[in-house]
Please model this.
Amino acid sequence: MDPHRHRRGARVTARITTPDASPDLSGNDPDWWRQAVVYQVYPRSFADADGDGLGDLRGVTERLTHLAALGADALWLSPFYPSELADGGYDVADHRDVDPRLGTLDDFDAMVAEAHRLGLKVIVDLVPNHTSHQHAWFQEALAAGPGSAARERYVFRDGRGAHGELPPTDWQSVFGGSAWRRVADGQWYLHLFAPEQPDLDWSHDEVREDFRTTLRFWSDRGVDGFRVDVAHALAKDLTEPLRDLGDLPGVAEEALHLLPPGDHPYWDRDEVHEIYRDWRAVLDSYTPPRTAVAEAWVPDARRALYARADELGQAFNFEYLQAGWDAGELRQVITGSLATARAARASATWVLSNHDVVRHASRLVLPPGTDENAWLLSGGRAPGIDLAHGARRARAATLLMLALPGSSYVYQGEELGLPEVAELPFEVLQDPIWEQTGRVRKGRDGCRVPLPWTRSGPSYGFGAGGAWLPQPQWFAEYAVEAQDGVEGSALELYRSALRLRRKLLEGEELTWTDGAPDGVLDFVRHEGWRCVANLSDTAVPLPAGEVLLASSTLHDGLLAPDTTVWLG
Model:
């Protein structure tokens, strides 16, 4: 029996195309983002309007009613810029255009207009740390040669060794291997990620001015905010001689704990905040001010700096995403995250999945300590996981997250309960991590497989053709069509939760309830609204109160394991 077939007999009704109550986001409220539910769209995997197997902007526009019906407040659009896809679109050849395979600027404008008509704000990804090696600036730098003004926009250096044959430092790429690549004339350039992603030198005035222009370009087109990729990497200590890291790990969140704050040569340097204060002046010149959220993999206290009102205003909370399914650990993370946000006068952010991590319907039921890469390399078979258990735990995690004060970021497909597609064969992998690590790390393709919209068709409704990553047969049971209007489905749980959340959510505080059983998170929100999540292995008595919503069926006055309930 296919373990993914867990909705036997589910009835199908007509798709919902409009929300129960469209939010009024058309005004000038500068604080709309503080409690928003933001839906992340990975455009190449969301919907394909032209049938070429690659998602596109017209596909996004045609499916925006799904987001509105879900109850989202905004969509965050991952990169859609011209790119050779050396890193899933994060290798940007032109920061102020649309990849021709995904559409045109007119298509982008039409998407923004439709989103605003439906009451959805639009946030776009901004990739300021690096460009594609196909970017006009980098091509100019290669042609101009050593010592040229064109090379000053990037980080070019002579190599070490008798003939410059060794990299300038021992810095390592996040994707594996040296962070330096040698060019034909003998110099080396820095790439903290893929070799196709040369790092910009943010001490250069022309780089700073170009990104001011980019912020204005998209803001003028109606964009409401920006998600800033690798926000902690822009400023670098390029004082000669460049510093080696020696035995320090090259991954940011590990190395940053071993050096004085702000002292790493390229992660989370204090000078980066000058850049974002400059950006804030641009963002605040619009009415309402444009929002921004930092992707900054830094310790909790340092994250608050990026979220300050005179900088980006908000920062992703990765401690929450990385926490295990443990009540004590989650309570500590929630308390700390709220304190960090409060210190920055920002709102907290919560996220369970995104385009870079194993989907939480699978991740949350992997045994503690599991090597996720080894699990992916095994095709999801070692260890095997109980998908029904994963679905139950994911639903409980969702209601817990949505009850917390602040913004919730939802990754496309999690509203369908999609688990990770761990069984992708090696020959179809697209993530550069696979090749960059010598085929040791499988990468992130398993969470980027195109979405299923219908039970059948060449790509389950994704488009008229196939899909750029193969979809498993079990996707049919997770399709929007299979869940729409079906009581108890993941999709209907999300719709109910987001409708109810909009009515209940007020203020940005919570109060922990004294005396909660071990393994239970119990807190009260505005005017007595209460969230109780049982993360233990045993059922506990259900507290008194009106049941507003539950992640799983309640029986005999008990709250079963892996179940969250909202009480009024």
